[in-house]
Amino acid sequence: MSDQAERLYERLLVLRCQTGDDDAYRELVGRFGLRLRYFLRKLVSRTDRADDLAQEVWLDVLRQLPRLKDVGAFTTWLYRIAHGKAMLEGRRNGRTPTTMVDVEQIADETEESFSPEDAARIHAALDELEPMHREVIVLRFLEELSYDEIGQVVGCPLGTVRSRIHYAKSKLKQLLTRNGN
Question: pLDDT tens across 13-22, in order?
């Protein structure tokens, strides 16, 4: 399916869920479940706790989905819930989420892509990034969210998103270079 057809189908699934269609809900969980767990695992240090948080997110989605007005915003809304749960988990464990100074004037760089052979090294290097950098990299390059959507998920202005992605890419390049590229 094309990207546009995929987005349209996701909107249809969300609409069906809003009318109480359990099969559509199961399909949404199937489409987003693994990606959501990966996102949470990159934000929460314990895998078992990330899995618990994913279940909590899906319960919240089930309860709150009928009130979602813009079905096209489902993905952003889903990751916003997950982000909130992960940040709350961090505060509960004494790890206050870090923030950066907002840097509005960082120029957009050409986004570089990595070959499939580099995937394992990239995923390992992601674990070495600061949580706020890891989060924006996962949202941008794995979930393919726009900068505006990432800002909505993490609750910060566009300039901060750009700044975090810039610094995250720089650090990721350093890690990949240091670890054998």
Answer: 999 999 999 9
pTM of the model as a whole: 0.67
Dihedral (Cα; 150, 155, 157, 160), 10-degree rounding: -70
Mark 111-146 as b/e (b = at least 16 C-beta within 10 Å): eeeeeeeeeeebeebbeebebbbbbbbbbbbebebe
Structural domain boundaries enclosing 145: 116-178
Find out whether 71 and 15 touch, Cβ atoms under 8 Å: yes
Same domain, 73 and 149: no
Shared domain check, 125 and 63: no
* Domain endpoint, select from 92, 127, 149: 92
